[in-house]
Amino acid sequence: MKKSLFNEIYGGYFSSIQHILKEAAGKDLTDKELLDLVKRIAKRYAFADSAVFIYDAILDGQKALEEDELKDAWPFFERIDTGAAKGKTNAPDHINRSTIRGVDIPLSTLEKRWLNAICHDPRIQLFTDTLPRFDSVEALFKYEDYILFDQFSDGDPFLDEHYKAIFKKVLTFVHSKTRMIIECMARNNNTAQKPSYDTEKTITHILDPECIEYSERDDKFRLIGNSPQYGYTIVNLSSVIACEEYIGEEPINRNQEIPLTENYKKEVILEVINNKNVLERMLTHFSHYEKEAYSVEGDRKFHVKILYSETDESDIIIRILSFGHHIKVLEPESIRDLIVERINKQLQLLTER
Amino acid sequence: MAKKKKRYTDCINNIEIVRDFVRESFIFGLKDKTAHDEIGPRSYDEKTRQMKDWFQECMQIRTVKIRNKVKYITLDCREYTYNPLYKVWKACSFTSNEIVFFFFILDYLEKNNKPLSMTEIHNAFWEIHPDGFSRDAAQKWIKKKGCPSGVINFDNGKYSLSERTDLSHFGDALSFFSEIAPVGVIGSFIIDKEDALDSVFKYKQHYVGQAFDHEIICNLLDSIKESLYIELQYLTRDKKDIILIIAPICILSSTQNGRQFLIGWEESSQTYMNFRIDYIKGLTILGDIIENHASLKEEYNKLRDNIWGVSLGNGKLEHIDLLIKAEDNEPFIVRRLYREKRCGKVSSAGDGLFRFEADVYDVQEMFPWMRTFIGRIVSLQISDKEYENLFWDSFFKMSEAY
Predict the structure, then answer these.
(1) Using H for helix, E for strand and C for coil, what is the string for B58-87?
(2) Chain A interface includes B68 (CB < 8 A)
(3) pLDDT for B34
(4) Most CB within 10 Å of its CB: which of A68, A129, A271, B358?
(5) Contact B313, B363 (CB under 8 A)
């Protein structure tokens, strides 16, 4: 039978009510406390205007309980008079108390089957050795049936014990936002050698961790953080030899002008002649970037603006080259010049043949 | 009598009515209200308002002509710890009776801690909410939604809650795999049930738009695992709707261009075909078992040794020999060749030269990758010279354009 993921039990409103009732359990809430709770929960689990809708439905539910008429209301909270005189004291004249205890919605069969499936992913060992298993249901899928056919082959060594230990330590530090001192292998510039790290030469970073970034294409994890000395820093986890909490003097900021975070975006504007569905291929290809497309000539010619971080520039150039004559760089000149340089080098190689 | 205005809601009763519209707004983001011929202006306003409510800061507005605005979705995937497009899967509509009864039954079953009949449950419900769900309506809904989902069990005429699982130690794994594993939106559903899990993971080159196809992927993977035939309703490249019976073999997903494909065996043509997942308009899992499924899969796996991407081309193998020059200060070029070679092989040809060789069914699939070495290609030889000419024609057009 065909599975459906579109079910109100997984919906934003059901999740919101679950958490609202759980947090409200056993508490007497003022109107403000109830509204704040609804806003906070709805913002996380539902949609932009859901808080208003949920709060109105709860208030309608209180009326419904009093008038014994449910209709279209959600009677999850009853209104209880406190006996305090309204307007005469600071105490509220009523409180709101939940009529139902918040109960966790149990896992569905689909969710159990998905959990069973992901427990076969080798990367699960990075997180835990205690796997949730549901023997009454089969795994939803087998990894051998889902192939990432163009993933790079030099991904991180997820099964390596040293790598696993480093990963778990880094994960803990990132959660607690603990300043770390990390020793890494330097990049190996000897073209004949693999792996691409020099085991003899090491670099030390002092880092305030922000997040761990994963690239499915590269199959690598990278630690991203701010170095008090050098600013925005990326560390490949596969290069890390050791990491500990940093307990020491505040490092000197070598250059006060280096930004501590990478939030500066560059832009490239491309012209696309829409032959053979190139526009769709190109827009799908770049869809994980912030972008804007507009027609300059009906269905034939389009301009596409893509915003990217400086660290992604080589990647952007490689991707533009992959489209060959189907797309053309309009701006900035620096990227146009790089493309022209590559074309000229190629023309020269062709004449040398 | 005046027509009653339909009240706006941020929920929908069928994701298919928005799936293509939302995808178009995310991938293309080109059409204003007047350009959407397939839906009326009121429907356009409602859909764009819903998208704004679901995706919030990811929605942008651009004015194309006076008064004409294009409303589209765009985001930098590296800024998010979760996929904001998953919200579309969480916008299923429901009635007040359904949500009230659902949380009542969860609470009541847990409180009593034993299986109960619908009569017992409904009597307790009716005491508190005499104007709510009728017994028959409640039973119908629970059998349609609560029990098939597995959240509520039904056995011997009685209902009970499914067992609880402590996933408090599994938060980081859930955060990660909900973004990376197939059908990750299911992981997002699980996360929503847990107490606030704050993810520390972000993602690079993360094709969040694939979220729209998670249900199709879920059913395809299930049918592959169970060795079941499927009926596909598919939109071809020339915009024709066709229906095919297929033995599904595997899913191929690109980490570099965001496209995903179903590989299936089509009996009448006796060929393996590839289908874009986002062009699948309908899917029915048939009850028939694919008797020779294991051998079809094994045969396809052997073919993969000579497939660069997804295509078998015209079935003829072509040999390609690409000689690349890497300067002394360009070790990254050599690293690229080794890690990106897929079914090819790389060897050193001395003097800063590296040879890439492969035998593939569809050479043109390799052209985008080969183009990334423009400026370093010393020579290119393909067994069918026409393909060599095609590659260099494209290059010369590129050099003319600049």
Answers:
(1) HEEEEEEECCEEEEEECCCHHHCCCCHHHH
(2) no
(3) 79
(4) B358
(5) yes
Return the pLDDT at B134. 86
Q: What is the pLDDT of residue B330?
A: 84
CA atoms within 13 A on the CB side of A15: 28
Separation of first and last alpha carbons in chain A: 61
State how far the Cα of A81 lies from the Cα of B230, in Å rounded to an integer. Answer: 61
The percent of residues above 90 in pLDDT, for chain A, comes to: 69
Nearest residue in A to B26, CA atom: A287
From chain A, pick out residues whose CB is under 8 angstroms from the CB of B401: 325, 328
What is the number of other CB atoms lying within 10 angstroms of the CB of residue A266? 15
> B385 — contact with chain A (CB < 8 Å)?
no
State the burial class of residue A305 (Cβ atoms within 10 Å of its Cβ: 0-12, 13-18, 19+). Answer: middle
The H helix count followed by the E strand count for chain A is 8, 12
Place of tokens 């606030």: B196
CB atoms within 10 A of CB A81: 10
Per-window interface: B 287-306 vs A, CB < 8 A: none
Separation between Cα atoms, residue B113 and residue B107, nearest integer Å: 10
The shortest C-alpha distance from A93 to chain B (Å) reads: 25
Q: Tens digit of pLDDT for each residue in A296-347?
A: 998 899 999 999 988 889 999 999 999 999 999 999 999 999 999 999 999 9
**Does B371 lie at the interface with A, CB-CB under 8 angstroms?**
yes
- Put simply, whether A72 touches B (Cβ < 8 Å) is yes
Among A3, A100, A117, beta carbon nearest to B219 = A3
Say which residue the tokens 């994960």 belong to: A171
**Mutate: best of B72, B193, B276, partner A, most A CBs <10 A:** B193
Chain B contact for A289, CB < 8 A? yes
Q: Which residue of A has its CA nearest to B204?
A: A215
- Interface check B231 vs A, CB under 8 A: no
CB contact under 8 A, B372 and A342: no
Degrees, nearest 5: CA angle B388-B393-B399: 130
CA distance B65 to A295: 12
Confidence of residue B58 (pLDDT cuts 50, 70, 90): confident
Is B8:B49 a contact under the CB 8 Å cutoff?
yes
- On average, the pLDDT of chain A sits at 89
Residues 6 or more apart from B347 whose CB is under 8 A from it? B354, B355, B357
B198 C-beta neighbours (distance < 10 Å), count: 8
Interval B65-69 mean pLDDT: 73
pLDDT higher than 70, residue B372: yes
CA–CA distance, B164 with B47 (Å, rounded to integer): 37
With an 8 Å Cβ cutoff, is A336 touching chain B? Answer: yes
CA A120, B215, B6, A67 torsion-angle sign: negative
CA distance A188 to chain B (A): 9
Hey, which residues 20-49 in chain B have their CB within 8 Å of chain A? 26-30
Residue pLDDT, tens place only, B170-217: 999 999 999 999 999 999 999 999 987 789 999 999 999 999 999 999
Mutation target for B interface from A137, A296, A322: give the one with most B CBs within 10 A: A322
What share of chain B in percent tops pLDDT 90?
72
Name which of A33, A32, A38 is nearest A58 in CA terms. A38
Q: How many residues does chain A have?
A: 353
In B, minimum Cα distance to A144 occurs at B250
Whether A293 has its CB under 8 Å from any CB of chain B: the answer is yes
